[in-house]
Every structure is written in structure tokens, then in C-alpha cells.
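Deliverable D4.2, example record:
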Amino acid sequence: MASAASVGYTGGIMTWQALFILSLSWLPESSWDDLMHRAELAFAILAAEPPPHEARLLMRIARWESHYRRDVADCRITGDAGRSVGPWQAHDRSPEVRARICGSLVEAARVAIVDVRRSWAMCRHLPREERLAVYARGRCDSDEGRRLSRTRYVP
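Output generated by the structure prediction step:
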């Protein structure tokens, strides 16, 4: 398992614990490897240095896109049944970005932060819980994107 230091995280352990516990509340059943992956993912998200609300949001997005599975996070299989255009799928046409994302949870978190912020800005006319529509489906006016956004949103 990665440690806080191995992913470059120097923040408080309480924030990491909060993300890890939230992941358990959102998807309680899990294998041992998936639990270890959740711990690494929480460290990686925090190492990317998002504000707390974005850290929670990234952990929630991971619940729906990968179900906290390592084989999805390292790009061995596609998560979210291919419905999402999040970091892994959106960057399929850019081999250098895809290599960064698939090779590092911290880089994946950094790219996701940029993509989430872009979606949030583009869909600012929508209710808060639907502003991830561009992230989830590529367009603000997508009914499915707004629905997927509502499932991923964390107030």
C-alpha cells in the first residue's frame, strides 16, 4: 500500500481518514485489495491539493466511475460502463496525458480536478447538483449527463 509520503501528501491524517470513511459509507462491500486502493486513492486526492469540497467530490466520483477498483484506476479496464467522459475516457486520444493518468493516481486526481472545474464553469447556469454534466457526459444539455451529475454530486 502507498503511504502518505509515497504519493507526496503532507496534510493531516484526519482529512485522509474522512475521505476513506466516506468511501466506505458510499460503497461498503469491498475486497481487501479494493480497501487498500481506497486508502491510496484518498492519499493521492489529497496530494493533488484540492480544497476539501473538491476532495470529497473526487472520492464520490471514484465511487461511481470505478467502484474504487484498482484495475479501473490503472486503466486495465474501463469504468462506469464507458458512460463517462471523465479523465480516463476523455484523454484516450492523448497518449501522453493518458500515460500520466494511468501511471499515477495523483496525476489522475489533478486532471480530474481540472475537468471537474471546467464542467462546473461551463454548466454554471444549471443547479449545483447538475454542474458535472460536462464531466459525466460531455455536454451541459445532456439529460443523462445531468442525471449522472446528480449521483456524483456531494453537497
